[in-house]
Amino acid sequence: MNLWHGRFADKTNPDAFALNASISFDQRMALQDVRGSLAWAEALEMAGVLTVDEQIQLWAGLQQIESEFQSQSFAYAPGDEDIHTAVERRLGEIVGSVAGKLHTGRSRNDQVATDFRLWLLDHIPTLDAALSELQTELVERAENDFTLTPALSQKERGQELPSPPGRRVGDEGDGEGNYILMPGYTHLQRAQPVLLSHWWLSHFWPLQRDRGRLTDCKDRLSVLPLGSGALAGTPFAIDRAALAEKLGFAEASPNSMDAVSDRDFAAEFLFVAAMIGVHLSKLAEQVIIYSSAEFGFIELDDAYSTGSSLMPQKKNPDPFELARAKAGTLLGKLIGLLATLKGLPSTYDKDLQEDKIPVFEAYDTLITILPVMAGAVRSLTIDVRRMAQAIDASMMATDLADYLVERGIPFREAHALSGRAVRLALENEKTLQTLTLPDYQSIHPVFNEDVYDVFDPQQCIAKRKAFGGTAPEAVLAQLKQAQSLID
Ligand code: ARG
Question: Is residue 168 within 8 Å of residue 433, measured between CB atoms?
């Protein structure tokens, strides 16, 4: 029998019932629904609406239902339209007619909004943990991929760094103090050398901001709608502040009409999920490119790649491609919910039932993809030599300009002179490193024999030691900061 059967002479059309029903997805909020009802029964007793004995009966029934959910033995009935109906129906079976008193002063409108918020409050920490797990892998990579010698120990990290030996472009690193370098790109064009660790950590910080956003989202959704009734509030003397505290909310909602319609928290969660998706897609895209034969910087572990049914040589970076794709579906969920919310009046409209699917799906997507990303990052191998070989002398053209700046030439002019050296090299099929000193002196007399020191990428990196730069000591400080955030 429908919860609203009194006013209706006819039964609901079965197809209309199926359309109306949300049990297939809102049963994920079963435990939250029971928790809300336990607190509501207590609030009703405190308000003098239920006797102590009635509350005890309701509690016993609700606790049994809770354990049925926990042991997955709860039997749904064909008429269970949604999770709220299912719990109430089962409560009636267990405790009899007193079950009918539980819904006093409450509506499914304030109930569902409460359950949904409780669900997110329960699940955001799990998502946060999955993010921090991926961050941990990124930090570990940054730590282990710092020099060609094995991972720096905690102790060594505090110590003075070995000074980089004088090296030229294309040298293969092989010893202590040889920081692992890679070409840094802008516009996907070789730009300047960076430490590989710096690149790894460039994917750490976006996730750190996402975790901050999750915390904000959690704080803002910590408002209790229960006690708002259908829209106008509850006529009973419910202590909503106490109820909020009981259920772990920071406060009770100040406007009952807003409370039953507010789904900002769901949209905010979906924004954070989409943002995480975008961040994962950026990491994924780089890994995909770097694992192509053309780059050859990265090789994925067999456990995190797939082959081709046709081409025996293929090793495909599927997990990263899927991560890249899922950013798109996550974005769609955010836009979909915002479109659903647009133009809705304050108070509850059935449209709001559509809020849960995207949130559950977004959560599931991230909980599935994050551990795979973490494992793939942990297990991939880096071709340090390929990375080093991809650094060419032209990537030090800025340092060449800086060389002139150090000799008193204004940067704008120095930039143009360095550009001329690049052009001269290109025109003569040379590199900045193989241009002769007379070549350089034809550009400007200030050039000296020491100009060739500029083309040591290790030195180039070592100079960028201001906070946030790619110099080894700056990256170590960054690493420490990142480490302390995940510890
Ligand atoms: N299943 C509904 C939902 O998820 C519960 C609220 C129903 N309220 C109503 N007035 N029909 O939104």
Answer: yes
Q: Which residues contact 230 (CB under 8 A, 6 or more apart)?
A: 107, 109, 110, 260, 347, 348
8-state DSSP, 193? E
- In this predicted structure, what is the pLDDT of residue 43? 98
State residue 12's pLDDT score.
Answer: 87
What's the pLDDT score for residue 149? 65
User: Which token pair is 207?
Assistant: 């996730």
Ligand 1: atom nearest CA of 116 is 4
Residue with CA nearest ligand 1 atom 7: 108
User: What is the predicted pLDDT for the residue at 1?
Assistant: 67
Enumerate the β-bridge partners of residue 189: 186
Ligand 1, atom nearest to 82 Cα = 1
Do 59 and 6 touch, CB atoms closer than 8 A?
no
**What residues are in contact with ligand 1 under a 6 Å CB criterion?**
22, 26, 82, 108-109, 112, 348, 350, 352-353
Q: Which amino acid is at 256?
A: S
**Interhelix angle 264-290/204-220, nearest 10 degrees:** 170
What domains, with CATH codes, occur in the chain? 5-104 (1.10.275.10), 122-145+180-222+254-389 (1.20.200.10), 393-465 (1.10.40.30)
Among 32, 353, 356, name the best residue to mutate to test ligand 1's pocket (greatest count of ligand atoms within 8 A of Cβ). Answer: 353
Residue of minimum CA distance from atom 4 in ligand 1: 353
Residue-level pLDDT at 150: 53
When computed from its CA atoms, the radius of gyration of the chain, rounded to whole angstroms, is 31
Segments of the chain scoring below 50 in pLDDT: 151-167, 170, 172-176
Q: For the chain, how long is the longest CA-to-CA vector?
A: 101
pTM above 0.90? yes
Query: What 3-state DSSP class applies to 124?
Result: helix
> If you measure from the C-alpha of residue 353 to the centroid of ligand 1, how many angstroms do you get, rounded to a whole number?
6
Positions annotated as catalytic residues are 187, 308
Distance 56 CA to ligand 1 centre (A): 27
Phi, psi of 298 (to 5 degrees): -130, 140
Q: How far apart are CA 28 and CA 218, in angstroms?
A: 19
Residue owning the nearest CA to atom 3 of ligand 1? 353
Tokens encoding 229 = 């009734």
| Ligand 1 atom index nearest CA of 21 | 1
Q: What is the DSSP letter of 487?
A: -
d(CA 107, CA 227): 9
CB atoms within 10 A of CB 336: 15
Q: Which residues pair with 184 in a beta bridge?
A: 192
